[in-house]
Amino acid sequence: xxxxxxxxxxxxxxxxxxxxxxxxMWIMAIMLFLTVLAAAFGLGTLAAANVLDRQLAGxxxxxxxxxxxxxxxRDAAAVLAALRAMPNVARAALVDRxxxxxxxxxxxxxDGADPDLPVPAMIDVDLQAGSDAAVARIERSVHxxxxxxxxxxxxxxxxxxxNFMRLMIGLALGLxxxxxxxxxxxxxxxxxxxxxxxxxxxxxxxxxxxxxxxxARLFQRRIALDTLYGGLIGTALAMLTVAFVGSQLSSLGSDxxxxxxxxxxDWLLLLTLPILFALLATVAARFAVLAALRxxx
Length: 297
Hints:
Helix content is 71%, strand content 8%. It is α+β, with helices and mostly antiparallel strands and 297 residues long.
């Protein structure tokens, strides 16, 4: 299908484009503005979800619950030495008691600092490969030494957050598809309205020998240009908004929110949206106008 983005001057005069008929362009600007925002939200959330998965995939916490402090310290030292000797362990460190007391303070208040309070010993472990098989090997090795030890996988703690982020990604994708469907619907309405407005002109063109395909090209070119120009305006405004929001998020100092930042390929993908929507509008206008011409004219 041949598409010309530069409409000849005769075609523009024929379709009265010099009048106040540019509402289509502004409608497309608004729709692309919303579409790019939804797409940017989805891409940013996807990036943050990937960062979260990478950070948590190989992180474990070993808890040693023992009332006797001497036994607890002895068991913790033995497990820590064994973990550091394992080939897949990138880092293993004993969490300082002061840090644990600070974490307990919101629940226990000043009693959390009581030296007689049996606070479990905790060991943070980072694995080079956070696969299920690697975690299972660590669990078997630790339980062989200390059956009462508890091993918590950070990934399981954050699974509700990860699932929610995946839900938001699906929602963003759904919004983009919904806006694409709405664009096609607007094009159908605009195409049929244009046919009604220029019915007499189209009848003259038919009498002069113009085919339905030639008439449809007049409409699809105009709609394609309106969609492209409006889409570029909406996309530019949306990208400025995304850049501003991204700068505000980066200033918060949160590792998770900082992961929402878009990569270069994400910006390029956003830039392709007005072109894709212009092609969609062209195809929709072509079929809508041809169908209407065959039915009514």
